[in-house]
Structures are given as C-alpha cells and as structure tokens.
Amino acid sequence: QVQLVDSGGGSVQTGGSLRLSCAVYGFTSSAKSMGWFRQAPGKEREGVASVSGSDFTLYVESVKGRFTISRDNAVNMVYLQMNSLKVEDTAMYYCAARDVWGATLDASLYKYWGQGTQVTVSS
C-alpha cells in the first residue's frame, strides 16, 4: 500500500525558514515524479514544486529562488526547503506522487497524496 507522510510544518515569522519532509512508503520514490502542493483557506490547491525521476525541477513563479525541492532516494524521502517565507505562503502543504517520470504542477495528475502539514507565516 502506497503511503506518503508529510511533516515539518509549523509557525514562523516573515523571513524565516522551514523544511518540509515527505516519507514515501510502498514504492520506490526514485521511479516517480514527486510534488509539493499547498492550499490556503478559500483557495484552490496550488502546485508549488515538482521533481521528476531524473531530478528535473519545476517551481511556481511565486516561490522561485526561495523554495527548493529535493529527494533522497536512498531513504525514500522528498523535501521542500522554504526560505524567506512570506505571509502569503501560509497554507496546508501536501506531498504528492505519481507513477510517471515527468515533473508537473498539475494536481489532477497525481495519484498519491500525503495528509498535509500546516505552515503559518506571521508578520
């Protein structure tokens, strides 16, 4: 059974940093593309970052230069390093995986989802 477990969220002030982690169980994450998504209250789920099976990365424009997605295939983990956090980054963040090699920020193309971890940034 495939399972993704998100962790690492919390409350920080503007300009702070957090690192989200996603533990992958049930399949070898190196063969999949992975993504991080977020959803703020009253808003649609938004693709934040994605990494392909060959480590090609995609980012939504609003986080470029601040967020970094990475993976450690040896331990089946995916990370999202978030620096220079802004109030508008506040959301529930979700890890996701799909059975295809290529990276994408389209949530509808992901099959497996974590339970989410809350990130709150205050001024």
Break the fold down into its secondary structure elements and pairings.
Elements: E1 3-7, E2 10-13, E3 18-25, E4 33-39, E5 46-51, E6 57-59, E7 67-72, E8 77-82, E9 91-98, E10 112-113, E11 117-122
Parallel strand pairs: 2-11
Antiparallel strand pairs: 1-3, 3-8, 4-5, 4-9, 5-6, 7-8, 9-10, 9-11
Write a structural description.
This protein is globular. It has strands at residues 3-7, 10-13, 18-25, 33-39, 46-51, 57-59, 67-72, 77-82, 91-98, 112-113, 117-122. A hairpin with a 4-residue loop joins strand 7 (67-72) and strand 8 (77-82). The strands form two sheets. Strands 2, 4, 5, 6, 9, 10 and 11 form a seven-stranded mixed sheet that branches. The protein starts with a strand and ends with a strand. The chain is built from no helices and eleven strands. It is mostly beta strands and 123 residues long.
Q: From N to C, what is the helix and strand string?
A: EEEEEEEEEEE
End-to-end Cα distance, whole Å, is 41 Å
Radius of gyration: 13 Å
Overall residue-averaged pLDDT value:
94
Extended strand count: 11
Number of helices: 0
DSSP helix fraction: under 10%
Instruction: Pick out the low-confidence regions.
Output: none
Strand content: over 45%
**How does the major sheet shape up?**
7 strands, mixed
Report the principal-axis shape. Answer: globular
The secondary-structure class comes to: mainly beta
Features:
seven-stranded mixed sheet, four-stranded antiparallel sheet, globular, about 120 residues, about 50% strand, mainly beta, single chain
Q: In summary, what is this structure?
A:
This protein has strands at 3-7, 10-13, 18-25, 33-39, 46-51, 57-59, 67-72, 77-82, 91-98, 112-113, 117-122.
